[in-house]
Amino acid sequence: MTLSTWAPVPADSEFGVANLPYGVFSRGEERPRVGVRIGNNALDLAPLLARDHEIPVQGPGGGLAEAVAAESLDALLAAGPQAWKSLREWVTGLLTDPAKESEASPHLVPLADVRMHMPFTVADYVDFYSSEHHAANVGKMFRPDAPPLLPNWKHLPVGYHGRAGTVVVSGTEIIRPCGQRKAPDESAPTFGPSRRLDIEAEVGFVIGGANRLGEPVPASAFADYVFGVALVNDWSARDIQNWEYVPLGPFLGKSFATSISAWITPLAALEQARVQPPKRTHDLLDYLADDPDQPWGLDLTLEVDWNGTVVSRPPFASMYWTAAQQLAHMTVNGATVRPGDLYASGTVSGTEVHERGSFLELSWSGSEPVRLADGSLRTFLEDGDTVTLRASAPGPDGVRIGLGEVTGQIRPARC
Amino acid sequence: MTLSTWAPVPADSEFGVANLPYGVFSRGEERPRVGVRIGNNALDLAPLLARDHEIPVQGPGGGLAEAVAAESLDALLAAGPQAWKSLREWVTGLLTDPAKESEASPHLVPLADVRMHMPFTVADYVDFYSSEHHAANVGKMFRPDAPPLLPNWKHLPVGYHGRAGTVVVSGTEIIRPCGQRKAPDESAPTFGPSRRLDIEAEVGFVIGGANRLGEPVPASAFADYVFGVALVNDWSARDIQNWEYVPLGPFLGKSFATSISAWITPLAALEQARVQPPKRTHDLLDYLADDPDQPWGLDLTLEVDWNGTVVSRPPFASMYWTAAQQLAHMTVNGATVRPGDLYASGTVSGTEVHERGSFLELSWSGSEPVRLADGSLRTFLEDGDTVTLRASAPGPDGVRIGLGEVTGQIRPARC
User: Fold this and answer.
1) Do A256 and B333 make contact, defined as CB atoms within 8 angstroms?
2) Domain spans in chain B, listed from the N-terminal domain onward
3) pLDDT of A279-321, one tens digit each?
4) Exactly one of B117, B133, B134, B329 is catalytic; which is it?
5) Which of A162, A251, A333 sits opposite B252 (nearest CB)?
6) How many Å apart are CA A414 and CA A173, to the nearest integer?
7) Half-sphere exposure of residue A14: CA atoms within 13 angstroms, side-chain side
8) A268 in Cβ contact with A210 (< 8 Å)
9) Angle B206-B35-B324 (CA atoms, 0-180°, nearest 5)?
10) Cβ contacts of A241 within 8 Å, gap of 6 or more
11) Which fold has domain A125-411?
12) Domains B22-116 and B125-411 share a fold
């Protein structure tokens, strides 16, 4: 049965009642609060939930009404999967019950009138590297005489920790980073603005659960720990990264900024997007085994927009490692996860040129410029350029579920 | 002039009135609170500061009395360098003024009666790799046919992000991690407990300041941003690390646990420990340039105790990169730091065998077992082993400044 809502939702909207992502918004000088997006409005939850006596579940450390009255999603993340389910059912009920319209409609706020804020406090940020096509492209460019994938790649989801403190919300300006870079033909590094500033189109997973030190989270518990999904642009200064990353991995080439979408799509809204991951070419160790009855491949279609030209449409369903496997791997050594942890998929690239999720790959390390709609040619980012990532997923009854967007404009370096 | 205190301090104590580290303690069922260590007591600050009307400086978001009444050092870290200075002067005045004894002495709590807690909430955790001797030892073991140092090593302080959520306080048991490991002669990885569990003896720097995105912190501002120093044991599963770390760096081989000392030594207590760093063999880029008038090499002597045998005394003064250079590097791309950020030096190893700060080096990758006082031989850690790191520094008038200890015992794997 298709649910219908009394709230205004344009016919082609990807933000109908089957979606209902969460974000943090403010209007004018008011303080930020938690909202749910429906169509082109944010529903202000706190005043409605506070007066509704029917919502039964309480999260730890206070009720749901308290959690949504906060200036971030932090308390809602910590409230856990039963609370997420109750809240989603309550919001869905509110928006689909015609009798609630008069009470609730005054709390719809046009998105055009609001400012969006960083939706939650990032605890730890991990970035994976789980697209086979991306990893192979990088291998072919940088190690042309070796096999494109390194020996560990098909055995475990390679990943590393990034900087949590520089994860910023969509719309934040990105200042071109300065740093050390050395071309292979230079004898010593020089200091200056990055000359190879790039994007990475990724999908991020926002954790709300917490395990105990020494107790891994099995892949089967994925939905109990993951609140929802964000779009991620992992801005990358390739020249800085290239000089610094051996042997301990990327550091300043990444840590200047990572942008995430303002709206977090609940995992429950992506039920129809679940697909089997790609066929495995190697046996997997037990803790990474696929469960064909509970697949966590996700059929999300991404879109990379460079100054108004869509230059790529990376298919997330092609990712070799699923987010459930990434979570199991990340904790198999006994490491804890906490509410607010964010982990990203790694650059999403498909098999085709127009499915590549980084400009490094799209321009083949700068050797094949990309033509934009205005006729200009690009290899890496120029000052003033704007990149917007969008994504959507199949929903119930043929509707699309929008994952919003993450956008950022490049500002000149300050060195 | 040597300051003397009315508080009981044993003659050989490294915790006299020139030291005064901060920590978070509790007694019985009481809630944790901020204390200062003097001799073998913790001075309970909150009740004393609350009634003292003379302390002038207020930190942001509340006064110092409020900050020390909290269950962590978080608010004190955020209060900034003027507040740190005022508080240290006030505590020093209290402990050296005989007229204050009757008021303050009831608030001395024997350390034997207290439990120590994680002193602050770790925001981002970065681990550097700044000992030339350690990096060269690792290079000789793993790349015997290549130069021991990689090309970037003398140009920048190599570092990477670690897991903030698994930084634990001294005394926390360390569960042997499980994970994938593959010896070079094996065709595929296997899963199981780490067989090469190691330590890394390091010194950590705790940040209290915050910069704005895009505005680097110069090395000269080091003391405005760094509150104090902790001892760090960066537990490392070498077999897991070795299989996973190419190309994105260490991940699960490190993220299961990192232990820090319970007492944070104020930077101001280490004024007499400041020394020139080692002679530079390469020109440094401007942002990393040494200022001979304001050196931030630190003459700390570390001690590695393995089941009661001191197996190594790593000299921190031999570190090639200083903590001021590390901070400048970490932010030169515009990345922010925040109160609660922790960055560690990397394994401290000197030139001599008995100065090596990891068992990987002490046992030369397991080929030269270490003999303990009970006659037993060790290469890597066995279940039940306890490792304790200690350190001290020169203080005024020949006294030593103790940096406390960080200890942990290995518990069996759970896989």
Assistant:
1) yes
2) 22-116, 125-411
3) 999 999 999 999 999 999 999 999 999 999 999 999 999 999 9
4) B134
5) A333
6) 13
7) 17
8) no
9) 20
10) A250, A252, A253, A254
11) Fumarylacetoacetate hydrolase; domain 2 (3.90.850)
12) no
Task: Look over chain B and give the mean of its residue pLDDT values, rounded to a whole number.
Answer: 95
| Residue recorded with tokens 């003999």 | B371
Q: Which tens digit of pLDDT belongs to each residue from B191-243? A: 999 999 999 999 999 999 999 999 999 999 999 999 999 999 999 999 999 99
- A185 CB contacts (<8 Å, ≥6 apart)? none
Question: Which chain B residues are closer than 8 Å to A191 by Cβ?
Answer: 285-287
Q: Which helix (H) or strand (E) holds A266?
A: strand A265-266
Whether this model's pTM surpasses 0.95: yes
List of residues 6+ apart from A202 with CB closer than 8 A? A127, A231, A232, A233, A234, A344, A345, A346, A347, A348, A357
From the CA of B164, how many Å to the nearest CA of chain A? 6
Annotated active-site residue A117? The verdict is no
Rounded to the nearest angstrom, the minimum Cα separation between A72 and chain B is 17
Q: How confident is the model at residue A259 (pLDDT cuts 50, 70, 90)?
A: very high
Residues A75 and A45: beta-carbon distance below 8 Å:
no
| Inter-chain CB proximity B240 and A213 less than 8 Å | no
Q: Report the C-alpha gap between B313 and B391 in whole angstroms.
A: 9
- The DSSP bridge pattern shows strands A125-128 and A342-344 to be parallel
Q: What is the pLDDT of residues B102-161, one digit of tens each?
A: 999 999 999 999 999 999 999 999 999 999 999 999 999 988 999 999 999 999 999 999
Interface contact B160-A251, CB threshold 8 A? yes
Give me the CATH code for the B22-116 domain, please: 2.30.30.230
DSSP H helical ranges for B143-181? none
pLDDT of residue B122: 98
Comparing A260-264, B79-83, B275-279, which segment has the lowest mean pLDDT?
Answer: B79-83
